[in-house]
TrEMBL record:
Natural source organism: Aequorivita aurantiaca
Sequence ranges assigned to domain Prokaryotic-type class I peptide chain release factors in this UniProt record: 16-32
Xref: SUPFAM superfamilies: Release factor
Source taxon at top rank: Bacteria
EC number: 3.1.1.29
PROSITE patterns cross-referenced by the UniProt entry: RF_PROK_I (PS00745)
Basic and acidic residues bias: start-end ranges: 110-123
MF terms in GO: peptidyl-tRNA hydrolase activity
Name this protein carries in UniProt: Alternative ribosome rescue aminoacyl-tRNA hydrolase ArfB
Length: 134
């Protein structure tokens, strides 16, 4: 994944933010929406695109666009930096290939230790019972 090329493919849109800020909120467009066209991207290979389609289908629209937004701060520039960071982190996290798990057997010592602790526990519990009178 080429991050510099990916950033050049992003589309930004500034909209009015909700939340605290008083009159400032009503006058300025500080909330930033970023959209990334996954289908027409040249910074990702076809294998990477397919991996993203499988891992995060809920974040991808029917047109193949990933949209994120940020209105945390009152600064448009800070919100833009935050949303770019989030998008790159989302893509990097979901492009990682998970290592296949190798099946292993417990060692003989581990098996013996487990059985020994089970026997001790059973003995401890049985000693708590009152004696049987016949």
């Amino acid at each position: 994944m080429n991050t510099e090329h990916l950033i050049s493919e992003l589309n930004f849109k500034a909209v009015r933010s909700s939340g605290p800020g008083g009159q400032h909120v009503n006058k300025t467009a500080s909330k930033v929406e970023v959209s990334f066209d996954l289908e027409n991207s040249h910074s990702l290979s076809e294998i990477e695109k397919e991996r993203l389609r499988n891992k995060i289908p809920t974040k991808i629209s029917s047109e193949g666009i990933i949209t994120l937004q940020c209105g945390e701060t009152r600064s448009q520039h800070k919100n833009k930096a935050i949303v770019i960071e989030r998008l790159i982190a989302l893509l990097q996290q979901n492009l990682k290939v998970a290592k296949p798990r190798k099946k292993t057997k417990p060692s003989k010592g581990a098996i013996e230790k487990r059985l020994k602790s089970k026997k001790e526990n059973a003995l401890r519990k049985s000693s708590r019972k009152p004696p049987k009178i016949e």
